[in-house]
Design a protein that fits this description.
Elements: H1 4-10, E1 17-22, H2 25-54, H3 61-69, H4 72-99, H5 104-109, E2 111-117, E3 120-122, H6 126-132, H7 145-155, H8 162-167, E4 169-177
Antiparallel strand pairs: 1-4, 2-3, 2-4
Helix pairs in contact: 2-4, 4-6
């Protein structure tokens, strides 16, 4: 009776062929939506409940603004919470892409973030991950990336966002056959 290792090598099966290509735009958008839904479930819902308890009793937007203007400490707490929320969302994208090469949304759709340069693909650095995620920070000048990033995608042959082009990264999809 042949050994197990002998039978697998005797079968002469073709090896898996792997192709790497640019991720399609719809998959990238779907992955981002999945990430936002996950963040909404885990982080934003918690944040909403804290804010609701802080601004207890304020019904309309006008009443809420008046309530916030009446207390400097209340406004400070909300700004601090907003800052903390921004850091948490930024950390979600930066740390996952740096450590795993993908966020949960990208993982579910088979996408990966890589560094590109000199015709070679490699893992991204922490700095590259940070730069490509700056659009998350809702302040000027980063808020302009909300417009520039998607528009740049349509005019770039590699379908990179502006921030991806800037830090020399791109989102890829790995196709395996065989």
């Amino acid at each position: 009776m042949p050994k197990k290792s002998d039978t697998t090598t005797d079968l002469n099966l073709p090896e898996k062929r792997v192709f790497i290509g640019n991720a399609s735009l719809w998959k990238r958008v779907a992955a981002f939506i999945l990430d936002i839904l996950l963040l909404d479930l885990l982080v934003l819902g918690f944040y909403d409940s804290i804010i609701a308890s802080i601004i207890d009793g304020a019904g309309s937007v006008k009443e809420t603004v008046k309530h916030l203007q009446s207390s400097d400490s209340l406004s400070t707490v909300i700004v601090m919470l907003f800052f903390l929320l921004t850091l948490m969302v930024l950390a979600y994208f930066v740390l996952q892409e740096y450590m795993l090469g993908q966020t949960v949304g990208k993982m579910l759709l088979g996408l990966r973030v890589v560094a590109v340069g000199d015709g070679q693909i490699s893992d991204i650095s922490f700095f590259q991950s940070l730069i490509r995620s700056m659009f998350i920070i809702p302040t000027i000048p980063f808020i302009f990336l909300w417009i520039v990033d998607p528009v740049f995608t349509f005019f770039n042959k590699e379908q990179q966002r502006f921030s991806e082009w800037l830090c020399r990264t791109k989102v890829i999809e790995v196709y395996q056959f065989g």
